[in-house]
Amino acid sequence: MGDLELFNHDQPVQTAGISTSRPAALKMLMLASDPEVCEIARSVVKQRPDDSRVDLLTVSADAADLIPVCSRHGEIALFFLQIAAHSLEKQVKLIEQFRQTRSGRFSHIVIHSSEPVPEADASFPCDAWFIEPDVTKKRFDVMLTNALKAYQERKTLNSQLLKIENATKALKEKEAILKDVIHNIGDILWEISTEMNYVYVSKKAEQLTGFSRSDFKGKHFTWQMTEDARDKSWPQLMQNIRQQKEFTNISISRRTCSGLVQYYLSSGNPIYDTQGHFQGYRGADIDITGLKNAQFEKEKLAAQLRHAQRLEAVGTLAGGIAHDFNNILGGILGHAQLMQFEVTKQHSASSHIDQIIAGCNRAKNLIIQILDFSRQRNNGKGGKLTHPGEIVNESVKLLKASFPSSIKLQSQVEKDIGC
């Protein structure tokens, strides 16, 4: 027998001027050598109701007809194969060849034999056995119904398994992406239990703190937190945690494995199970150590600027006082020099006048030093070289005036020092 296309159930049926389409029929491939069985199969297929229709693709006794039919039809629900006990090995190869032509598609394979075949054990590559010595329409129809039902169940299960497999694959891909994001993100991601003990920290914690992830596990959230953070930040954090509220950008500081202090902005949200029971917190710590250090440096520079401004103000004040003092001193020195012209060396007041002039000269040198300190005296374009010994001697003179008379201050400075 050759290939037989018995029915074309996909053609629309005209009913009272309205065009309708029947549901697609399942396809059956039959390879049998018994003419009576082939005729029964045709009759049963023809009489099946519309909701379980079957297209009998071929009724053939020649295995060579199998390949061309399989190449033309993608989906074949049932492969009915009649075998004899003396050709088991040949039939096994035929089934394997059929499966190879399906390119991954599956079909329900039913083997018909007129009597049990002892050599065919459970490993025989088929889905069901149809052992009937006398095939009737009723028995064939029951076999066909059961086989098609098993095919539909397998197809549904296969579809569900494929969906699960695709969903699992997509979930694994997303999980891999999420792991990459967590491992490469610049923040420390963490999760703590209801007892505020670490359950999870991201890999970034190892890079920032120097502690391993196992070091964190089971430790309290305040572990390695500085005293300043415990005093200022932890009370606020604890209040939110007790009320199971989220907290955002709370500044905390912790010590690293090497003892350095790092600064973070900590944020977290409470987590609950499906029954709404509180399970702990999940959140992130953003490393702001660089920002904090820059802020500290800025504050240090601002303090240095304020100190320089105060020194400048003191210098300006000292310069003003030195100018006024210089004016007063000029009058004293001028009168003392006039008195020196009028008094002879033998006069008893001559030595006192000399002391007044010497004191005025020392005061003048002090004024020069004050003006140098306040930078209100012009020393010329190139400045003035100062001998270190002179600075020491002048400093000693200033210190002598501030010490009580019971303390005697002596200095010994070599002439060539600093040269």
Order of helices and strands: EEEHEHEHEEHEEHHHHEEEHHH
Provide a count of the helices. 11
SSE class:
alpha/beta
Morphology: rod-shaped
Can you tell me the residue ranges where pLDDT is under 50 for at least 5 consecutive residues?
1-20
Terminal CA distance reads 128 Å
Helix content: 40-55%
* Strand elements, count: 12
Largest sheet: 5 strands, parallel
Q: How do you describe this structure in short?
A:
With 419 residues, the chain is of the alpha/beta class.
Can you give a write-up of this model?
It is a single chain. The protein has 419 residues and is an alpha/beta fold. It is 48% helix and 18% strand. The protein is built from eleven helices and twelve strands. It has helices spanning 35-46, 66-72, 88-101, 137-184, 204-209, 213-216, 227-232, 234-242, 289-342, 350-374, 388-402; strands spanning 13-15, 18-20, 26-31, 54-60, 78-82, 108-113, 128-131, 188-192, 198-201, 247-255, 261-272, 278-287. A hairpin with a 5-residue loop joins β10 and β11 (261-272). It is rod-shaped. The relative contact order is 0.05. The model is unreliable at 1-20 (pLDDT under 50).
